[in-house]
Records
---
Amino acid sequence: MSEILNVINLSKKYGFFTAVKNVNFVVSSRECVALLGENGAGKTTTMKMIYSAASITDGQIKVDGIDVSKNPATTKRALGIVSQEDLLDGSLTVLENLIAHGICYDIPKKQLKEKCKELLEFVGLSNYANKEITSLSGGMRRRLVLARAMLNDPKLIILDEPTTGLDVQSRHVIWKKLLTLKQQGVALLLTSHYMDEVEKLADKVLIIHQGVVLAEGTPDNLPVQNGYKTLEDTFLGLTGFDEEANDIVQALS
Ligand SMILES: Nc1ncnc2c1ncn2[C@@H]1O[C@H](COP(=O)(O)OP(=O)(O)OP(=O)(O)O)[C@@H](O)[C@H]1O
């Protein structure tokens, strides 16, 4: 496993408000790291700094050894992004949406079309290639966004709540694809409010509260380390269902 993402002492301020405080973590190839935190914990802000959609207030991010602040265009090319908003173009078909995105990566036209078809096959949407975006279900849209994120053969895919709002079947389909990608060597950075998703996909979990990493470990050893039975209990306990979380936040601030 080689290191793909290195987040070093990362902080983000919006005016006087600190959204992310001194966060450190590494994601390697074939590894999925999950950021687990309540609404407003700072997960999306962290991800946005990685893909240069938000400026870094303090600290450093390296993608494949390259400093994101110094080389945003280069580092972005190594990333696939599944953001909370799918940003699909409703005036284009499914295939056209992929092609339009692929043009940004200077892939030769013929090769691009082939690649788009392969990706539609991978996410099980081949039969929808020429359909309007509006004809897709929520789960299909998320699968298409995943295909779009894979167009540039990314080393790291950033997944901001990739299955929110989907039915159990659609979530399983997406999990299967993500596990396949991981096996193929891709690194994954995930946020999710679903504990089962984190347990299924993540090799390492960071519990974030008010922009601070409270605890870090595997989905199995985090509860053991912190004296809880399940990941959900650990998360609830550390993020405010007991006094201890506030003490840790104060100590780390
Ligand atoms: N552009 C912005 N300007 C000011 N404050 C912001 C901005 N974006 C986010 N914030 C604040 O930063 C904090 C972290 O937000 P962020 O979106 O990172 O949370 P999150 O952990 O991703 O939450 P969710 O689970 O709801 O997606 C929140 O308090 C939010 O209100």
---
Amino acid sequence: MTVDEQKEAVGEAALKYVKPGMKVGLGTGSTAAWFVKAIAREVEAGLKLTLVSTSVQTTQLAESLGLTIKDINDVGTLDLCVDGADEVGDGLALIKGGGGALLREKLIWEQARTCVVIADAAKHVPVLGKFPLPIEVEPFAWKGTVNRISDVLVEFDIDKLPIMRKKDGQPWITDGGNLIFDVACGRIEDPSGLGAALKSVTGVVDHGLFLDLAEVALIATPDGVRIVEP
Ligand SMILES: O=C(CO)[C@H](O)[C@H](O)COP(=O)(O)O
């Protein structure tokens, strides 16, 4: 199975968590896109759902497939959110935000009763941190914020600098108008301690550690989709 076929398989497999009438959050990224396509097919066939999106990119994809995306503020608690991840670690601790949508993703995840993460096998890791951890930063006074992030990293024995994410030489800007800094941590031994410490820095809008949020992971393997619980 190619990686793309694995992504398609988990996107399709997540359909089993979708029931008629549900309010569903649509994740962001190339894996979540397969779920969006599967949902579009089912809606076209008559399934009734209320849908919200975690990014402009996903809204554009969904609308191009004929889906209607509601404003999250008009919807209340969601039944389900299905989204990809960059790393899936022990206890379903995750790194997300490779696609830069981490803040809106976390807002949608926290408003959902059940969160299902879908990923290809290469993303299932024993220890988080090989994938650079994205940190979303308010642009005003970003240099001071990054200095304080660096101080936090030192406290956690991470001797790597936050690198500003760029596209075509320009700062990459999130849907919410913020900057992203990526930190190649290596190994994150204490995800909850690091997450809390980063969140306490003024100017950090959020970070890509998603802890205690996923109820189940669907991991594609060459032999089929494996269900992983915390
Ligand atoms: O967190 C995300 C976007 O902010 C994505 O879910 C994550 O980057 C995985 O993307 P892909 O499925 O394309 O590998």
---
Amino acid sequence: MERNSLKCKIGPSILNTDLSQLYVESQKLLDNGADYLHLDIMDGSFVPNLTFGHPVWIAPMADAGVNQYTFHIEPVANNVLSICRKIKEAGMKVGLALKPGTGIEAVRQYIDHADMILVMTVEPGFGGQKFMNEMMPKVQWLRHNYPLLDIEVDGGVGLNTINACAEAGANMIVSGTAIINSTDQKAVIASLRETVESSIHKCNV
Ligand SMILES: O=C(CO)[C@H](O)[C@H](O)COP(=O)(O)O
């Protein structure tokens, strides 16, 4: 496992985001052991309408120091490869996200062009939703067929659901509510990490 954990959400009101507060919260999470920040720049409920979004966002994200740009394949079905190419040209890694209703077959042809596949374990939209265990076969399939691929899960992931994610083969964990609402973020992050690290080698045998 290279990395795990942490989500920091910037919703549709990104223009109104208090960046100094975002910085403070992000630093706190990193100090508490998170390996990376996963920033949602748009509310997932807008996913079907964002065909115009990527050309606007890719360059500024790269300029801001983002190292991986993940996008949902559903609204850009005819442009996935060209978006992958633009992201790479901008110097970032490529992540491809799947909504719960999207099967693995929709992404298979693109996996070799991606650094990471994100399996959403809730409907995109907001934090605090119930983890969808029925998404785990997608993670298992990916891990089985792509032992070295980064596989991320996002939605309802916390201490009660991390086992399922880790055993299925996820190595990048987005956890919002479970960390943010905890009085001991460091302990929660450490526990999530330990669960993932103790499972990951079993997935690769
Ligand atoms: O962006 C999301 C949905 O659109 C994430 O699932 C969510 O923000 C993660 O938080 P939580 O751990 O509370 O589910």
---
Amino acid sequence: MSQKETYENPDLKKERQNCPFNKEEITNLLDGGKEKTAERKQLENYILSDEQLKDAVPMEYLSHADKYAEELRKACLLMHKLENSPAGQVPTLRALMGAGLGSAVLKEGNPLALHYVMFIPALMGQGTIDQQAKWLAKAYNLNIIGTYAQTELGHGTFLRGLETTATYDPNTQEFVLESPSLTAYKWWPGSLGKTANYAVVMAQLYTKGKCEGTHPFMVQLRDEETHEPLPGIVIGEIGPKLGMNTNDNGYLGFEKFRIPRDQLLMKHSQVLEDGTYVKPTNSKLSYATMVFVRVVVCQDVTTNLRKAVTIATRYSCVRRQSELKPGDREPQVMDYQAQQNKLLPPLAATFAFQLASDHLWNLYNTANNNIEQGDLELLPDLHGLSCALKALCSSEGANFVEVCRQSCGGHGYMACSNFPRIYGQVTAAETYEGENTVLWLQVARYLVKTRKEQTGGLSVKYLIGEEKGPKTVDTTLEGIVHLYRRTAVGLVDVAIAELEKSGRKGEAPHDAWNHAAVYLIKAAQAHARLFVVESFVNSLKVGNLSAPVRTVLSQLCELFIIYWLLERSGELFFVRQFIKKRLVTVEFQVRTLLYVKLLAAIRPQAVNLVDSFDLRDEILASPLGCWDGNVYQRLFDEAAKSPLNQSSVHESFHKYLKPLLKSNL
Ligand SMILES: CCCCCCCCCCCCCCCCCCCCCCC/C=C/C(=O)SCCNC(=O)CCNC(=O)[C@H](O)C(C)(C)COP(=O)(O)OP(=O)(O)OC[C@H]1O[C@@H](n2cnc3c(N)ncnc32)[C@H](O)[C@@H]1OP(=O)(O)O
Ligand SMILES: Cc1cc2nc3c(=O)[nH]c(=O)nc-3n(C[C@H](O)[C@H](O)[C@H](O)COP(=O)(O)OP(=O)(O)OC[C@H]3O[C@@H](n4cnc5c(N)ncnc54)[C@H](O)[C@@H]3O)c2cc1C
């Protein structure tokens, strides 16, 4: 960072003095070790020093088509750079696909992301060994570029309702792909519009006159030389979106398009030459690619949140506004308790989400290895937890990013602040890979089943048997975690009671379920929060942390746990044993004794904590969040890039405004 040598805002300089903990220790912790930090830094130098990967003008000033072309140029250049990357191909790819290094170069969505995040994983998870041998090397070498085409114009959530058909013709040993209506058109897949020439397509499999449900098919969409759509393929891009505008989300229709039988991905289920269908051991195995992405989305959201928090925290220590003590100099806005209340919970959340996502990643790897050996025991727990954390991290993450933006006042509304882009990425994750409400209901289904049948995986063990632990109000960390547990159990019980009440009234189970949705969603959310707070608390018990780092992380942990408790205190009313009086007592004790005290305790370390994320200026891509705090000069420099500032009078003045000024209307 060359700015470090030339200028440092005096307020930020002061914030950085006398840091009681070793920032590098936290950096190493987040990276996964000292060596990993060194590798990351080397990789960042390698990628970010390349002049050809820098934007000539800010992306906002380009047209829709030019934005796509420019991002594709950089994405392809990045792929060339993979070959010589000092960190090796896979770690480089991982870094580029994630929200950190990748978004420093590819600002509005990576047109090759789906190839790596969904197409390759789908081939690996759904293809037989022979199919992998045929397609994977080509995919890795970028001889072909693929996407994952599942969602249709008419259906995204309800996969059993997908309309695209793949009908087996035993005479030619081919499947015939067809989009029987406009609503059957694939709609949304990333990279589909212009980039991909292949796709894993989810379609209803028909053989011997019977529908066997949705299955994955490997389909060539475009000519490998000319890139023209193949006959029978109708393809295009769906147009501008709230964010991620350089990822060419597309549409796709099939007009009696034929593919060979062996392009059904047959790892879990098969269609034999004569059309005989061989069932999978579990019909949900064809949903496995989504499970993988839900897991990585949690990490992606966390990295994005770290950027937002860094920008907002540094800016809040540079920005001076209003009067705290009459007659005194205007204070740093970070010194207002109200500002700390906005920013310190999301700062703590970055740690909470990272630790929970790490647990989920470990579960994913274990479960996936077991599945490869034919053991599906961990699948329900993996499904439940991946849905829960994906929904929680993305919804809370999007809210926190918005709060970070608000905490920067007007300047946070500028495109160059980078908040619009970060928000666009994080809020997209609330919808894609399973709309969050729908995922909460999946989680609730698992919780209700566990509680009623008294059997379930590790993440729901607390629902089995009688709920143990103190029944009195306890403000220790363990006591508060217990309160979360009691709330989660209580909310599941309340939801079950609602279901049973509807049952007694004679409602069918599906109606009872619909009428209990509000309770079910609350129960699922309480479960997800419990998992996150337990992960945070347990992670601090283990691990080789120095005393100062343990202290600051423990403060953040405590703050976060109490923050959520206060935010969600209304939910305690749902749980019978918490009478109003006791709730008020808890609120009072917690708020006065702990929360506010913790805000004040963590406040002096806010800048040091975000510094320890070690996010380079190029990655933050925001004049508000730069390491040197030279906010005003940088905002001014950004404004100078506006095309409207390239002449003193714009040509439109002569065309429109001048005639108006001269006319009498
Ligand atoms: C050179 C080297 C190369 C190396 C390559 C290395 C690559 C590294 C890459 C690493 C990446 C790093 C990080 C990158 C991060 C970037 C991330 C950003 C990019 C993201 C791009 C995203 C693009 C988006 C894509 C999409 O959106 S795809 C479409 C997604 N669609 C959905 O999610 C649809 C949601 N709907 C559903 O899932 C289902 O329909 C439903 C679950 C809601 C309902 O289904 P159904 O009706 O069939 O089921 P029921 O409700 O009846 O339930 C029946 C039972 O089934 C169980 N169930 C359901 N689903 C699952 C499941 N998935 N798994 C297991 N079990 C499941 C239920 O629990 C029920 O069970 P029960 O009967 O016992 O109760
Ligand atoms: C940026 C982005 C990228 C995407 N990339 C891809 C991709 O690469 N490949 C791909 O195949 N798809 C992709 N998608 C599509 C995405 O997976 C779907 O949009 C998502 O699964 C939601 O489905 P839907 O749009 O049909 O919403 P709907 O299901 O129609 O949701 C509309 C509303 O109905 C509610 N609802 C629906 N069902 C229920 C229910 N059972 N109970 C209660 N409420 C319900 C929802 O909560 C929501 O409020 C992408 C989407 C976005 C935004």
